[in-house]
Specification:
Layout lengths: L5 E3 L2 E4 L4 E4 L16 E2 L9 E2 L27 E2 L4 E7 L3 H14 L8 E3 L7 E7 L6 H13 L4 E11 L3 E8 L1 H18 L2 E2 L11 E6 L9 H7 L7 E3 L1 E8 L11 E9 L3
Length: 276
């Protein structure tokens, strides 16, 4: 499907579908949810969205429930809600790695200039594999099925959070070490699942996958945030390692109140074990 000329800096109108794709402010050239989504819906699909309750068993707790090790809740049953809804596939760090990174971020926030950054909260700490943008309700079941099949084709692998960097003056991020090749292949399968589910590429050029976890962004797009000093301190950080055993589909509920500093709310739609 060919896309028409842009009608705004963050919005592209799909000529044949009669629907719009809107980008998300944030991180850089990684294929993650900080970029504009490379997918649009097929013609005739009317986009609707839904969101589940926030109090629910964790995706990693298993069929009988239990304590959440990742800090991400899985909704029991979807309910209708107005507003925009976005989906992405991700690897979710375990609680121990999150706690270690939180201690490092607390030190970063004491540095000069930290008050000029928008710091992301722990619920938003994840490694995006593929960002899908707004997805119509009728496409979600097929997307889930395709992601489940993709998860079964990949084996668990080892990783840990290590070092960091920045995308210009826009985003400060923590990096990853371990089996990066396995993570790259998992990200490729997550992207392929979207195409097979009917989310059609808008023709954006493929960019290499760059796994990262965004921890801060510049507050003002018109002013330089000078993120290099923060990245230099973060360079020495290294978390405990863990075995990545799940592929998660996550919903991003965008802020609706307009209050300064309000951040998206993330919920795990589903998670599938790798290799089985």
């Amino acid at each position: 499907m060919a896309a028409a000329a842009a009608v705004g800096p963050d919005r592209v109108r799909a000529r044949d579908a009669g629907v719009e794709r809107q980008g998300e402010e944030g991180a850089g050239p990684c294929g993650g949810h900080g970029d504009r989504s490379p997918y649009v819906r097929r013609p005739g699909r009317v986009p609707r969205t839904y969101v589940g309750p926030s109090e629910a068993p964790c995706a990693s707790a298993g069929p009988t429930g239990g304590p959440c090790t990742s800090g991400w809740a899985r909704p029991r049953q979807p309910v209708r809600q107005t507003g925009r809804m976005r989906f992405f596939a991700a690897v979710l760090p375990p609680r121990v790695a999150i706690e270690e990174l939180a201690a490092e971020v607390a030190a970063l926030r004491r540095l000069s200039g930290a008050d000029r950054l928008r710091w992301t909260g722990r619920p938003g700490w994840h490694f995006t594999l593929a960002f899908y943008g707004e997805v119509a309700d009728e496409l979600v079941p097929e997307l889930r099925l395709r992601l489940e099949r993709a998860a079964h084709r990949h084996h668990p692998y080892e990783m840990w959070i290590k070092g960091g960097g920045h995308f210009g003056d826009r985003a400060l991020w923590a990096g990853v070490a371990g089996d990066r090749e396995a993570m790259r292949h998992l990200a490729g399968s997550a992207e392929a699942a979207a195409r097979k589910a009917g989310l059609v590429s808008a023709g954006h050029a493929h960019r290499p996958y760059h796994p990262h976890l965004t921890i801060a962004r510049g507050r003002d797009r018109g002013a330089r945030a000078h993120l290099a000093p923060f990245a230099a301190v973060l360079d020495a950080f290294e978390s405990s390692g863990w075995t990545v055993g799940e592929l998660a589909l996550v919903r991003s509920n965008l802020p609706v109140s307009g209050a300064p500093g309000e951040q998206p709310r993330y919920e795990t739609e589903a998670a599938w074990p790798l290799g089985r």
